[in-house]
Write a structure and sequence with these properties.
Number of helices: 5
Largest sheet: 2 strands, parallel
Structural class: alpha+beta
Mean pLDDT: 80
Radius of gyration: 18 Å
Strand order of the largest sheet: 1-2
Order of helices and strands: HEHEHEEHH
Shape: globular
Length: 118
């Protein structure tokens, strides 16, 4: 870990899982330190791996989320105690979530120079 980057460690973990295998594989933020073309490559390996095992991936990258057969939204609900809500998304909700991950979701509209003057 002292000589490898986060992305390199992610790819090493994925390679080990592919070789060692198992019936269920869980990857918590396998996307750490990667992006772009590398993210697409990791997504493709995960997709192939899902052909022979159950793969559960926690990710923030749409490149990886988009190859999943099912998409779950995990949300923390503040309170005492804090509760975690998990819901399966239907196809329309999945598409909306992928769009949000790509930066196309609802955001606060930036204030224009004209609006700042008023």
């Amino acid at each position: 870990a002292e000589t490898a980057s986060g992305g390199e460690l992610s790819r090493i973990a994925l390679a080990l899982a592919v070789v060692a295998g198992g019936e269920t594989l869980v990857f918590d933020e396998i996307d750490a330190g990667i992006g772009g073309v590398t993210a697409h490559g990791v997504a493709e390996v995960l997709r192939r791996l899902a052909g022979r095992a159950q793969v559960l991936t926690i990710t923030h990258l749409p490149q990886i989320a988009s190859v999943a057969d099912q998409h779950l939204r995990v949300e923390k609900v503040p309170g005492d105690p804090t509760v975690t809500r998990i819901e399966a998304l239907d196809e329309l909700e999945r598409r909306a979530e992928l769009e949000r991950m790509l930066g196309g979701g609802d955001f606060v509209t930036p204030v224009t120079a004209d609006e700042r003057r008023t």
